[in-house]
Amino acid sequence: MKARLAASAALALGIAIGGSGCAMATYQATTEKYDPSDGISADLGTIELRNMLVVSDDGEEGSLVAAIVNTGEDDATVEFEVVDSGERFEVDVDAGEVVSLGAGDEDPLVIEDLGAEVGGLVTIYAQHGSEEGQELQVPVLDGRLPEYEDLVP
Fold this sequence. Notes:
It is a single chain. The protein is an alpha+beta fold. The termini are far apart. The longest helix is centred in the first third of the chain and has 24 residues. Strands 1, 2, 3, 4, 5, 6, 7, 8 and 9 form a nine-stranded mixed beta sheet that branches.
């Protein structure tokens, strides 16, 4: 009787280990942070930039689209500068809030002197407060996709 119980326990343990063994030894891709859409992301201290991209039909004028998340306890002003043209913008984000440029009630920021090729990248410097800023290589897309057609300036 003890042999049957021991064999059953060993079999159950073998099935449990065999069924979950891959998860124990395999790389878990879902634990990696990545950009699931067309834009890029960056963190500036308590400010998180998500799905940042520019929509343009001609590369001369474009709409900066992004979700700007303030995870801090203080209101913040995020500063953007298009590196090649020197054009600057500021966006205020209340503590614990999200500003979605180009979505809902928020209009995208219109860059009048973009100077980039559609399908290429534009360098935008982003910074807030005393945090170190970052130069970001932001993709420039056109309005061919239905989700972007209303964002073309």
